[in-house]
Design goal:
Largest sheet: 2 strands, antiparallel
Strand content: 5-15%
Order of helices and strands: HHHHHEEEEH
Strand order of the largest sheet: 1-4
Distance between the termini: 47 Å
Radius of gyration: 18 Å
Helix content: 55-70%
């Protein structure tokens, strides 16, 4: 079964829309999108943006297991109350205990954050 990056690549190829147009609308570089094609799991927001550009609904392309891994690792905060007056937050626990999935999700978030940061730098420091 192809991974999410491959599914994304095939959908873009079938859309007939150029990679150049897609990266320009997303505000990323060509190497970044080619790295995305190699990723096994992708960030939901990124997939949704590409889907809007190429007018493609990816909800039919991913299996339910892949869709569950798409958005991000869900973190549920919990608070433990002691007998004293102060409350202290308990350590955050991740719903999925598979370290490789957690790492992939964090990597996808990190890359998305770097891309957003680069886009912000371009807006602020680009020649006017």
């Amino acid at each position: 079964m192809p991974h999410q990056g491959k599914i994304l690549q095939d959908a873009i190829k079938n859309s007939g829309i150029s990679i150049t147009r897609i990266v320009e609308e997303l505000g990323i570089t060509r190497p970044t999108i080619y790295r995305k094609f190699k990723e096994e799991t992708l960030d939901y927001g990124f997939v949704k943006q590409v889907g809007e550009i190429i007018t493609h609904d990816f909800s039919h392309d991913f299996t339910s297991l892949q869709q569950a891994a798409l958005p991000f690792v869900s973190v549920t905060p919990s608070v433990s109350v002691t007998s004293s007056v102060t409350q202290r937050p308990a350590s955050l626990q991740v719903a999925d205990n598979d370290p490789s999935k957690q790492l992939m999700a964090l990597q996808a978030k990190y890359i998305a954050l770097l891309e957003a940061y680069n886009e912000l730098l371009l807006k602020v420091y680009s020649p006017k």
